[in-house]
Target: Large ribosomal subunit protein uL4
Amino acid sequence: MKATIKNLNNETVGEIELADEVFGLPSRTDILARMVNWQLAKRRAGTHKTKTISEISGTGKKPYRQKGTGRARQGSMRSAQFRGGATIFGPVVRSHEHDLTKKVRKLALKTALSTKAAEGKLLVLDAASAESHKTKELAVRLASLGLTSALIIDGANLNENFARASRNIPLIDVLPEQGANVYDILRRDTLVLTRNAVEQLEARLK
Model:
């Protein structure tokens, strides 16, 4: 599969061959959904907590005698049916992480890249670099490329000026190649890869 290489001035500067085993896979929404759920589950703090009956402050005395009152039998005022009582089967502090095999994670990343390529929402840049760290200059260049919501993935080392200039532009994210992930690829409309990023992703995922 061939793709056109452009520069930040929206000029065509060449072509690149994209590997079919990385950018030409069929779309698999089930794989993408599993990967996104796995990523978001890992991010959850899991600090939710309600008090069990042993943690409620209050007396341990039986409220009233067992028989003869005409009321239902009760053993504690800290029980869930009373105001200020415990919560039964409430959330506890825990990790929400679950396992997902490396094979599936690798397939999901390749599927996400392939999906963007198939939709025509993959753009290959010659380089993601800027002479100045000023946001205004970069915003004009990205607008000329038609990028309003984009994830830009560069090689292992980001250009510092480009990374700084892009920070204040809404809906524009910049990541190094090793940070490429399914969730960030899918949450932005356009995926922008530099020539270095393509080479490194193909070397890692082939």
